Amino acid sequence: MHSRERLKTALDHRVPDRVPMMMSANPWVIEKLKQRLQVNTDRELLQAMHLDLFDMRGFDYKGAVGPRYVGPGHMNIPATWCGDPLPLFGYHEVITETPFGKAWSMGAPPLAALNTIEALKHYPWPQADWFDYANVRRDLEPWAADFAIALTGPSIFQHATLCRGVGQLLLDMAADPDLTTFILDRFFDFYFEYTRRILEAAGGLIDIVRLADDIGAENALLVSPRMIRRYFGHRISSFADLAHQHNAKLLFHTDGNVRQIIPDLIAWGVDILDPVQPEVAAMNHRALKTEYGDRLSFSGGVSAQRILPTGSVDDVKAEARRVIAELGAGGGYILSPGHPSFQSDVPIDNILAMYSVGLE
Amino acid sequence: MDPKLATIYEAVLEGDMPGAKAGIQAALDAGVAPITILNDGMIAAMAEVGKRFEEGDYYVPEMLISARAMQAGLAILKPHLQSGGDQPAGTVMIGTVKGDLHDIGKNLVALMLEGAGFEVRDLGVDVSADKIVEAIRTGGPDILALSALLTTTMPYMKITIEAIQQAGLRDKVKIMVGGAPVTAEYASQIGADGYSPDASRAVRLAHTLMNA
User: Fold this and answer.
1) pTM here?
2) Exposed/middle/buried for residue A264 (C-beta within 10 Å: 0-12, 13-18, 19+)
3) Which of A26, A95, A96 to mutate to test the interface with B (most CBs of B within 10 A)?
């Protein structure tokens, strides 16, 4: 089965020849995987690991295939730019050292000091016109020949939290709805039009549009269902409609406990929920599959807080088998970890063990 | 409840910062004792905020605006309190461990502890074990609160506690830990005195540790 057919079968809630698989990881993990498997390129790594999805934002979300930047020179967008949208908003990550090696973390939020709509109006917000989309189809075709394609990058909330400061934006949401809406509109307006033009240029090659927006904390939603409906409902709906118009599915990524809002996500058109963190009791896989499995697909679920970083190879295999059995019964599941991106503390053997189960 | 205190209580509970400030000023002008304003108006309101958070009625944004109203009110009240010589509920040093820059959880805990009458010294983010040892040595807090969001930085909690042990300071300070991947089991494994799953329960834990 071609990866695209495998993915489409699973997302149509039918049983494919085997579970489709996707992976993201930080660049230091990717480097170790390449060394272990003695491959050089991302394509070779996808093939060696039998992964089904090529992400246009790359394994490490830093950009692999995207439109060309042709916008203002003073924005300091590097010539190598190819799909990581965060620098467009003035946001930069920093690298920190951990006991396991390097990790990316949040840099200073560029919108932190802009506390009025007037001040925010003067910020150099990115425009969809800053890009030339003519190359997208040509650049995607070689990937689409072998893999299903995911478009990762747009965000309706998380990128706003990174740029405004998560605490500040959460406070804004309660204290100043007009300011909050102004900020969220700037992100939505850009990402919607940018995504629309990429989908149009790709001409049907994109299978999944991935919105990444953490609205769950470990124990509960980060904000109330009322606020989620008010601030995010119509925006998620718009992205779902857009994806569906181009024959793609909408994947919504949010960490944490979002059980309470799942019926809304389905009503707004979300097709796939990621990463269904197994450590969160309310996100019980069996219960989610029983309650929503006919209308909603899942990705993730393999314990990334406990088993992947600290378990043995056998523990990881058992965990992957459990998740495939529970979330993948009758299709509707993409194998990936319960945190979207492998961090430096996950042993390479455990990563390979997890995906080896997908081939069983 | 005295209507002046009820006004302050409601303003803090609703996150109405101007209302809280005006209410506190009015109560001071009317001669209500500052300590009564603090305990019965503000701390009582923040306790109710914590209760609503635990019950799933309030979420982080509601908690944040209440804490903001509380802080703005405290700025007005503090000069009057100091003259009364009132003692804080305890002193807490708080920070995220080395390598971890994620501070929303840590900030919430700090705000809720302040709201409960603790004196909080925020060490910030990415705080090394050495810095923490030095801060305990010079600051002498009752409680040290450590936060980590990542599985990759969580082990620094253990390293930090070991460093405190080696410096001979372990019995001088109670240590509480929290953050997404942290569990009660992990907390006891690394020799912390307590774990809390959220900011509201962190306040309860801090009170328990003070009385331990």
Assistant:
1) 0.89
2) middle
3) A96
